[in-house]
Each structure stands twice: as structure tokens, then as C-alpha cells.
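User: Um, any thoughts?
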Amino acid sequence: MRKLGIGMLLLMLVLLTGWWLTRPPSTDLIFYGGPVLTVNQQDQVAEALAVKEGVIVAVGDVASVMAHRTADTQVIDLQGRALLPGFVGAHEHPTLTAVFAGAHDLSGFTHQSNAQVWSALRQAIAATPPGEWVYAGGLDAILVPDLQVPMREALDTLAPDNPVVLISQTLHSAWANSMAFREAGVTADTPDPGTGSYYERDADGGFTGFIAETRAMAPFVEGLRAPLGLAGRYGDTLDGYLSQGFTSVASLGYNLPPWLARLVALRDFQPRIRQFFYLVDSELQYLPDTPDHDDPYFRVLGVKLWHDGSPYTGSMLTSMPYLDSELGKTLGIEPGSHGAGMIAQQELVERLCHYSREGWQVAIHSQGDESNRQVSRAILEALPAGAGQRQVRLEHSVLLPPDLLPALAERGVSPSFHINHILYYGDRLADSIIGRHVAQQVLPVRRAFELQMHPSLHADSPMFPTEGFSLMQTAITRQTSSGQVLNAAQAITVQQALRAMTINAAWQLGIDQQAGSLEVGKWADLQIVDQSPYAVPAKRLSALKVEEVYLAGALQYRRE
């Protein structure tokens, strides 16, 4: 408590001494010499752009923009590079990314075989003093096909003197040894947290070591979530977003306390990125009495609810049964099961009515087709046709049935698509989890565009890398890592993909009048990219390099 009090006093000192300014100090700028992708209503490409006091004041041909030049203006020759709006991260988890940056890496992005994974785990255990927790993240039976997941007894043998927790890459499951269960206070008498979230038990009632969903995992990761211990890693996470061209990021639950998130985002006492928070139930003490849309750098926008879970734990709620496969057995998915809803229908209706009446957005995690149908029925009951825009967001939308979309569009509902399910896990979804027929129905992005629902794309970091051009590439090509194409009819154009990463995401956050496109009067949140995404083949988009990033005209990142 004393440390938290000191932190809050420090933030008050920053505020009272005027270090938290309206915008970062910026130089008047003119960019020319390369394509300026405005992402305006017509997706026009301009020749030049001028910035004054952190705001765009001119966009157009070189001659007209240069008329705004003064003796104090810094003129930047793009030398053929492209100027774009900064990406808007519609659904990320900066706090969780920072949390798991403190864990040992077992991911399939780093390790290619079972032997490499367990060698890394043994080294981590050997380097940890007895009694101290060993946290390891990124366990992935999809990217590491021969992975053998050790259950409780095997982990007890590996680490008899340390509590050990292994977290999956999806963040929806974990495995722990006996000492971790004891230290977390989870005993044979501990009830499961709720439908779809549980501590798996064997036929005798003993723990197997498998832990399903985030509510059940919470007692095991408290050591990684100590707020002040997270601060440095949180700052590094924000810098990572900036290096990928993101100037705004929405955090969908499991957040730092808002005061600390604001403080850590300062660099030289100025904000480095814009943050937008959605709060989960355990964070509702931070929900203000009324929405506040005045702060340009930090806002609490609403709440995050879960209706179902993940396809990779069998907790995504589907009308079709999960396959009987070796991968499914490794992941702990019961063949023929359908997943489960995590919130009662009437409770969902009541919470939608309550929060929308109070002016808060509600972001609903809903992946399976049956989950989306139940959520849709709740929305139609809670919100009348023509209800206010942006009141409800659908998150991930993996098997969102297209026939639901017209009625949802009438109520201003907007989906954010977890598009790189296709790239990283699409092959295994098709052959081992939901089947090829169902996999050809995933992620109806194009239909959402046709209905003007302002769809966005997201990485759900730390599940997948926060790489905006990779998200765009997958939305256009619909290709898995093997080259298989899933639901080609829902492919979109490069212009639409860029809109999904910029102006549409800004619309979902309620900042589309200030950000998301390069137009006069908007914040000068910009990125310089080595080539225009409009000019390269779709299959090369993920190779584009972000060279510089500006927030309100102030340089925040430059590639070395």
C-alpha cells in the first residue's frame, strides 16, 4: 500500500507541476517526396502534408502545402517512402504482454521442437533458487507439433522445489505442479470459478495440473502482476507498439491501475502513446462515474465481458462438435464437445442495458457461432434498432455467422476480427479442431465492410505479434502458414485492410474525428513506412518496415 501511495503522489506531482501537457512538444513539420496515404473517405493519395502544433493543417499537392512553411518549419523529404496514419490497436493486452515478458519463453516462435521447449524449461528451473516461482509462457502444441505437455506429476518431478506455472500461447490455459497449487491456495475444496473455467481433475478427484481459462489461472500469476514490478516491462511494451507503427492502443482487460498506466506511458514527462481501457469485472473500481472523452491520451471507454472462450481449449461455444484428434487430446479438448457459454443470457441482457444506459461501451468476447448467436439475441433484446453507435463491440468473431450482421449493423454493433488465427493456426483449426468445412466459414470481414460496420483487425497480443502489416496481409490473402486459403470470399482489398487498422479502429474507440486518417484538423499521429502498402504485392505486406512514428507531431520512434 505504501508503494502504491508513493506512485499516486508522484502522478499528482506530475499533474500539478504541469508536466502532463495537452500534447507532447512538437516541431512544425512538412512531409513531401513520397505518397501520403490519407485514408480519407475516398482513400486519396496526396503529395505532401503539413503539421502545426501537433495538428494536421494542410494535405495536398506540394505547392499548396509548402505555402504553410515558416522559418521554424522542419521539412522532411520522404525520399519515396510512404506517410500513413498511425495504426490504432483496437484490441490488445499491453499489461498481459508486460506480464508474460517476465516469464521464460517456451513459445513456438522461438522453439521448433518438444526437445527444445523442455530443454529451455529445465534451464529455467535450474537457474531459479528453491522456493521461488518459475513462470514460463508460450506453450503451443500447434506451432510445436510434437509438443508433449507435462501434467502435474511430471512437473513435480522436473521441479520438486519450485512452484511452476506454464501458460499457453493462447493465454486461455495453463499447467502447474503441486507446489504451485499449494502456494496459490487452490485445494481439493476450491470450487471451479465458473462455467468453462476450471481446474481439471482425474477420476479420483485429484488435480491433473491443467487449468482452463483466465479466471482459474488468476491465483497462479499474481507474482507476475505486481503493479510496480510491471512498470518497466509495460513501458517496453508500449515502445514495441510504437516500433510497429501504433500510435493508439486499446487494452481489453487485465490492466494496470489507470494512474500507473498513465505514469508509465510518460517519456520525458510527455505521453508517448494514446491508451484506451476496457475494464473487466475485477477492475470496476476504476470505472469513472461518467464517461470522460476530454483526455486525448488516456480514456476508460467501457467494460469487457466474456461470453465464450478459445477454440484451443475447447471452450469456444459452437453448434458443431469439436473433432476427435491427437492435437485435440493434447490440448485437452473433449471430442464431440461444443464448448460453453460463460455468462447467463439474462445477465448479459441486463448488463448491456445497464452499461449502455450509462454511456459505456461493452466489448464482448465471442468466438464461436453459437456464442455469437446467443450474444446477438441479447443485443437485439437490450438495444432497439437505431440505437446509439459504438455501444457494443464484438471481439475476435472467429465464427461470426454472416446472417446475424444486418440486424447488428442496425444497432451500431462493430466487430474486431482476430485475423491471424488464419495465418498461425488456420491449418490446425481445419484439420484437427473444427474441421475443414467449418474453417471455411471463419472471420467474415468483407461482409462487415459491405454493411459499413467499421470492422477492425487486431493481434490480441501477446497471443500473436502486434504487426499491423501482417494483419493486413492475412485479411487480404486469407492464407495459412502452409498457403491454404480459408474463406476466400471474405477477402478484402488493401485499402479496406488499411482502413481496418486505422480509421475503422479509431471509429470503434470514438476518436475517428481526431485520428485514423490524414485530414486537416486531426492529430498528427503518423508513421513513415519504407514503401507504400498500395504499391507492393499483398504477399509482401508483412515485410514492410516502419521507419519513423510521430504522436501529435512529436517523434516517438526511429528505426536504427
